[in-house]
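Q: Could you predict the 3D structure of Alpha-ketoacid dehydrogenase subunit beta?
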Amino acid sequence: MAAEKLSIVKAINASLRTALENDPKVLIMGEDVGKLGGVFRVTDGLQKDFGEERVIDTPLAESGIVGTAIGLALRGYRPVVEIQFDGFVFPAYDQIVTQLAKMHARALGKIKLPVVIRIPYGGAIGAVEHHSESPEALFAHVAGLKCVSPSNASDAYWMLQQAIQSDDPVIYFEPKRRYHDKSELDTEAIPGPLHGARTVREGGDLTLVAYGPMVKTCLEAAAAAAEEGKSLEVLDLRSMSPIDFDAIQASVEKTGRLVVVHEAPVFLGTGSEIAARITERCFYHLEAPVLRVGGYHAPYPPSRLEDEYLPGLDRVLDAVDRALAY
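A: Sure. Here are the predicted structure tokens for Alpha-ketoacid dehydrogenase subunit beta:
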């Protein structure tokens, strides 16, 4: 397949199709993933082509879905579980944290659980309560889980391939507000490391670090800042656990300033860990404190107010101006 422009939805669908074709032990499970093709149509056509025994419509029971996936993984399968919306994952939190994340260590390395949990996450789609959460820090905090999030079609395809092939459990966060953004995908390319950050725009005055849905916002901020003569470097983190601190450090040593951006609340978010680590590592290179931009420490609001809650271009540029003012 030659390189072509695909949406993130289509890229994930293509990646799942490739995994099903290449490994008979790969299964897809979740609410409405089969006949409906998923509420976002991410799994569209897969049950028709691979059958109900490999693309499985489950009951509305997230704890049971993940628990079943753990059992299947113990029997040698590679389940790919879909949690229909981010806010629905919490009934399964116990299974994920106390079983999925711990089994490898509990068995002294003798047991592997190659389970991928796909979670469409984040806001800006005008949804009702429990449909716009950003819970990535809750899972990144748990030892034994890997947490990643693509921001473009190429990463959506390749990072999912790598997650499915991993012998460790991976939480794969899909930025639903970007599902229909199109970008270049080459399914014959050699992918980079799953947990490596990537510089998506070079700059010299300040580093913007983001992942998932906020990468596009940071690129827009960098373009706007360039019109005022400011040169911003944008780093796509791609992985929230583990975090590629070496890549962030290298960028900050060049620019001297760092702003971390994510949709999730700033309080105890991923940006907090990045700010602390980079302050330790780059203290003598920093020209300003590390600043964070994110959601507020409040329940996600009704959809009419979400534009006020979510970090946008103006809030990112305000943080950039504050950092450059030091």
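Q: Anything worth pointing out?
A: The mean pLDDT is 97.
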